[in-house]
Amino acid sequence: MFWRRLSVCLALCLWITVLMAPGSVCAKKQEDSFFTASIYRARCASRCLSLHITRISAFFKHSQNNGSLVWCQNHKQCSKCLEPCKESWDLKENQCQDLCEPLFPKKHYECLTSCEFLKSVEGVKQGNCPSPEKASGFAAACVESCDQDAECSTVKKCCSNGCGHTCQVPKNLYKGVPLKPRKELVFVEQPSGQLEIRWSSKFNISVEPVLYVIQRRWNYGIHPSEDDATEWETVAQTAEERIQLADIRASRWYQFSVAAVNVHGTRGFTAPSKHFRSSRDPAAPPKPASLRVTNVTVGEDGQLMVRLNWTLPEEPDIPIHHYKVFWSWTVSSKSMVPSKKKRRKTTNGAQSWVDLEGLQANNSYTVELQAVTYWGQVRLKSSKASLQFSTAQSNDSAKSVAKPKKDELSPIASTLTKRPSGPLEVGTPFYQDGQLQVRVYWKKRGDPEVNRYHVQWMPEYCSHNETRGPEKSVTQENYINLPGLLFSCKYKVTVHTLRSKRRSKDESTTFLTPSCATIRSKTHKYIPCPGEGALPKVLAKPENLTASFSINEGNITGSFVWKVSRLAPTQRITGFQVTWAEMTSENRQNSLPNSIISQSQILPPDHNSLVVSNLRPSTYYRLEVQVITTGGEGPATVKTFQTPTTLPVVQHRPRLRQHHSHHSKATVERHEWIKGSQKK
Fold it and tell me: Which residue stretches, if any, does this entry annotate as coiled coil (predicted)?
């Protein structure tokens, strides 16, 4: 007994020493490659091919290739076996019976047995436990140090030693397992940009079909670096000794590793290959997409802050370093020629929005956005995305008392939402900290004894019929944030004070919250929408969209009018989103909405018309009108039209303005709508 205890202590000390050795981390990473989901799935697929190998051999007599996998996917029985081997199957949260029965209601035996096999290889490591009497050192300790293989490091299994369970090195670890492929990989870059990777295998000691799992990692930069590389990721599974990859990016240093797998397991991945980088130069970043106005806020001084949003590129050759934003506008001057002012600012490349501050109401602005990256000392620029918008206001609107903090601005609406001046004013609803909120303002009373304001709010009705009782809060400020609001609801908020136990007169107002779909469509961040499926669809859309053209001293002006139909009783129109653009001949042939410069404007709900001046003669334009309601955005109506033929006296860039009731007396001739199409 003494010698057994001594051997256990010595083994434990040796085990600790080995763990502290520098190479142990690398060894652990290498051995961990045995236990990846891609290896388990490959073992599962190899089992399916093994079960149907007789049928497969009849089709593929000469050699095993990827055709065997394709055959299995298309074969009635083999495909049932192959189904659980797919990456989409999650066995941690689901039972095999629950996954197989819905797919194969009548005969799901093949699916069920394959699923159970996959579940077993995920929990039981390769090899067999040694005989209990052969345990020595720490493995022979009479302790329950493990319950399952997953609790043991590297390739060790949880095995019995006669008086307990310990982690032990298994026997027959590689029995029936194919040899590793040779570590030398051959890279062939195709003219199309695809990369073909080839390898060769050693003699296969197994009769079972062998599948190959390919992993890769990469790093940006001028030089290869394993320290800065990404984690290993599985990119392919194949039955051939080659693979073609289409998603190879310039400017990246790639390393690959291959594992040979059969139903019994694997010997792990090969050592990382030599680095490969595409011979192609990295492309300039793509033109920023979906540039749009998503929020307008009015400050106490009457100046505006406009938030612009755009969509970040999914995977550029080089990460965006920064964005350059230019905006310009025309101002009146003493001379006959108006002066044009221009400003610029930069924003981080990982950011998809920017705030333009100090803008003036009743003005038109042109914005250009450009992405910039660096490749060594070379600066790569995208082409510029352009947008024109107007800050026109309706006459009965008034400016907000104050604006929310910058981090509270949320891209949920492009309208200039302002309430009539009064005791209470409501800001623009914003989404923050996982909830919809709004800020309510009021004027402080002159009485110095009044320093506490009692606020109550509750929904009067919601489009999704959800109800909620009143909520209350007390504040000493002249504003309050109302958190946890419901989407698509009409709220009533009431404020009063208490002085000498006497309650002041209630001041109240109402406001509408946007739909969850509207908020989610205006931001790149994911926003959960509870009960979204139950929300009524926005059916309101522009109809009878008509146009007429007038020519005055060679200048062409278009007037556009529409009506709105099918508005739900619980939905209220908050505005119209109008976008129009000149179409090139190429875009017109392909029915594409692309253009050199698109212009956009949000009109108030009582303005169902628009006037566009300085149009080009004999030119096709595309006009899109969309209704914005309290329940979200309705379907867009799209029309394509051609301007009449005439030569304008002076060429100007087209300008947007709202339609007023008066008409120019200098109109020479009128042209009606020429061509139209509607987008449902």
Answer: none
